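The methods section describes the discrete structure representation at length, but only in general terms. The central task, working out the structure tokens from the amino acid sequence alone, is never made concrete. Nothing conveys this as quickly as seeing an actual entry. For illustration, here is how one protein appears when written out as sequence plus structure tokens:
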Amino acid sequence: MRKLRNCAHGSEALLFNAERLMRALQVTELTGPDGVRIVDVPEPSDAERVLVRVRAVGLSFPDVLRSKGLYQQQATPPYTLGGEAAGVVVAAPAGSGFAAGDRVAGTCAAGAAELALLDPKDAISLPETMSFEAGAALPLNYPTAILGLEIRARMRPGETILVHGAAGGTGTAATQIAKAAGCQVLAVVSSDEKERAALESGADVALRSDANWKDRALELTGGRGVDIVWDPVGGDRILDTMRALAPYGRWVVVGFTGGPVPSVPLNRVLLRNIDVVGSYIGGFLPLDPDNRRRLNSRLKELLAARQLHPLIGSKHTLEDGADALREIDARQAIGKVVLSVTQ
């Protein structure tokens, strides 16, 4: 969209060069989804980044937290949401490995818009067989699962992984990463619909969060317990999570969708000989310039082997972005929530 702006200068009206505007989903005030709306903003431009015409945007729980001013890395409104985007390259810097017309997906700072900028190292080529919606589900959840399970928890073939929030975006990604490594997955879910989603994503067994999931996990492992717990939930589950772990088990803490950050009784960690492993991709990437390449290289391997099949739970338009955030905030989301961007 092109808009002309006038500016008064003394008695003379000057006509500035046309400024290209685009639609973007922005946080305008820190009141949660109610403070999120579509606005016109200048199109981005950076010769050192890949300019992408966005076709789909992935939303996640951090977007909800950002809309409330509760995320670890917080900006001052107004700012554009969307840390994951997929689309078609408009322009790319020389030597980036990308060219106009390429289908790509990647992480970005402001993906919920008609155009977005991707750092070349944060982008991957999108297979022709994969939809833009599925592509928008790749850049954050799957590297997060690779980091948490393969790097931080040192997952090994044949281990048993218990996945909390198994029907959500990170849960379904963690399930597929674990299955690709040859592990058994026990999925903790809260409803019949979420059980179907977890099993569709590859989980071996679904356990209900309201029906003694810990006892069932111990039963299925012959009383030994699971080797790894993937936990984006926290909340009041933490004691049973520790009880469900086998000796030398690893509890991967990914987030706290279950509410306030819980306190961990370290005496139980000591007595049970278990590890509490923090896994935060936002803190991992800056530690080494090579970390993003490591994660994306592994992501490309799994894509080439056709072992990743993002589960898209719901699709919304860019204009309905606030409703999509409400769905995530109400814990109703199944799989990945995506926004389709019409041009």
